TrEMBL record:
<feature type="binding site">
    <location>
        <begin position="319"/>
        <end position="320"/>
    </location>
    <ligand>
        <name>FMN</name>
    </ligand>
</feature>
<comment type="function">
    <text>Catalyzes the conversion of dihydroorotate to orotate with quinone as electron acceptor.</text>
</comment>
<comment type="subunit">
    <text>Monomer.</text>
</comment>
<feature type="binding site">
    <location>
        <position position="269"/>
    </location>
    <ligand>
        <name>FMN</name>
    </ligand>
</feature>
<feature type="active site" description="Nucleophile">
    <location>
        <position position="179"/>
    </location>
</feature>
<keyword id="KW-0285">Flavoprotein</keyword>
<dbReference type="InterPro" id="IPR001295">
    <property type="entry name" value="Dihydroorotate_DH_CS"/>
</dbReference>
<dbReference type="Pfam" id="PF01180">
    <property type="entry name" value="DHO_dh"/>
</dbReference>
<feature type="binding site">
    <location>
        <position position="217"/>
    </location>
    <ligand>
        <name>FMN</name>
    </ligand>
</feature>
<feature type="binding site">
    <location>
        <position position="176"/>
    </location>
    <ligand>
        <name>substrate</name>
    </ligand>
</feature>
<feature type="binding site">
    <location>
        <begin position="67"/>
        <end position="71"/>
    </location>
    <ligand>
        <name>FMN</name>
    </ligand>
</feature>
<comment type="similarity">
    <text>Belongs to the dihydroorotate dehydrogenase family. Type 2 subfamily.</text>
</comment>
<protein>
    <recommendedName>
        <fullName>Dihydroorotate dehydrogenase (quinone)</fullName>
        <ecNumber>1.3.5.2</ecNumber>
    </recommendedName>
</protein>
<feature type="binding site">
    <location>
        <position position="71"/>
    </location>
    <ligand>
        <name>substrate</name>
    </ligand>
</feature>
<keyword id="KW-0472">Membrane</keyword>
<feature type="binding site">
    <location>
        <position position="91"/>
    </location>
    <ligand>
        <name>FMN</name>
    </ligand>
</feature>
<comment type="pathway">
    <text>Pyrimidine metabolism; UMP biosynthesis via de novo pathway; orotate from (S)-dihydroorotate (quinone route): step 1/1.</text>
</comment>
């Protein structure tokens, strides 16, 4: 029904406006008695065989919603009804920011892909915390970044602010230094600044009575040498794991119109699937499975998800595939896992 009726209708309109409209509709529908139960009955798969324990946390199932969809933690309780085992909110920054000028979100229908240059648009970490206090038992990841106006030499302070504000309200943290849409952010992936950033957060973490897992989200555009550096950094800083991968700046092999392909921003969706899986396999094999990996990028079918898990991922996340394939995708992946 989603792909036959709902998606064709929604895809006639501007993607960012559709995103906000969809949020409002899900919020309204979920307030109607029994609708939440209906969503759960349609899309959730409850089976103890799907449970996973990863970096000390127990996940109801290994399929999560990636950061960027519910940036401001406005809909995590309702989205959980669609069968996700966990929801990652953000990317959040210390201060509210509008992000990049519109239009900044583009569908590449021929490629089942999206280009975005949102630029960490969010209402600031404190506003998100107010909503997270209403969590009804959803396992939450907190994806954190820096404000655009903060120079890289002061970036650590922004991450510390977000870490402190979210600490009591999220189950794990994700350090985002891999978005291509904040100027110079990816320079923080270099070994020296990244090690400093992660060590600083780990120092704060270790002073807590109950520590939270810290993960690093990396770009798919890193070279093999840079990926080997990532393995060294994870080992040195003792963070909990890696999310592979963020969006790509590559435009290789796309079939959509040139005007769309030439839009600046990060590309997500089917064209990212193979590279994301390559990165997962490389990290897993070269590290001898030394740390957990959350696989994300181009998952549009149960087969795509299984490939990432077989490559070495412990969990997977959806974003663009959820938009193109609909909530049925979550159920399909969990069903496929049970039939393995």
């Amino acid at each position: 029904m989603y792909k036959l009726l709902v998606r064709p209708l929604l895809f006639n309109y501007d993607p960012e406006r559709v995103h906000h409209f969809t949020f409002k509709m899900i919020k309204i529908l979920s307030k109607i008695p029994l609708i939440s139960d209906l969503f759960k009955s349609l899309y959730s798969v409850d089976d103890p065989r799907l449970e996973r324990e990863v970096f000390g946390l127990k996940f109801k199932n290994p399929v999560g919603l990636a950061a960027g969809f519910d940036k401001d933690a406005k809909l995590f309780n309702e989205l959980h009804d669609f069968g996700f085992g966990f929801i990652e909110i953000g990317t959040l920054t210390p201060k509210p920011q509008d992000g990049n000028p519109k239009k900044r979100l583009f569908r590449l229908k021929k490629d089942s892909a999206i280009i975005n240059r949102m630029g960490f648009n969010n209402g600031g970490v404190e506003e998100a915390v107010k909503r997270l206090k209403k969590n009804k038992g959803v396992l939450i990841g907190g994806n954190i970044g820096k404000n655009k106006i903060t120079p890289n030499e002061n970036a650590v302070e922004d991450y510390k602010i977000c870490f402190d504000a979210l600490f009591d309200y999220v189950d794990y943290f994700v350090v985002n230094v891999s978005s291509p849409n904040t100027p110079n952010l990816r320079a923080l992936q270099d070994k020296e600044p990244l090690t400093k950033l992660l060590n600083t957060l780990q120092d704060k973490n270790q002073k807590k009575s109950l520590q939270k897992p810290i993960l690093l989200k990396i770009a798919p555009d890193l070279t093999d040498d840079q990926l080997l550096d990532i393995i060294d950094i994870v080992k040195e800083t003792k963070i909990a794991g890696v999310i592979a991968t963020n969006t790509t700046i590559s435009r290789k092999g796309l079939r959509s119109e040139i005007a769309l392909i030439n839009e600046k921003g990060g590309l997500s969706g089917k064209p990212l699937a193979d590279r994301s899986t390559e990165v997962i396999r490389f990290l897993s094999e070269k590290s001898n499975r030394a740390f957990p990996i959350i696989g994300v990028g181009g998952i549009h079918s149960a087969k795509d998800a299984l490939e990432k898990l077989e490559a070495g991922a412990s969990l997977v996340q959806l974003y663009t595939g959820f938009i193109y394939e609909g909530p049925r995708l979550v159920k399909d992946i969990n069903k496929a896992l049970l039939h393995q």
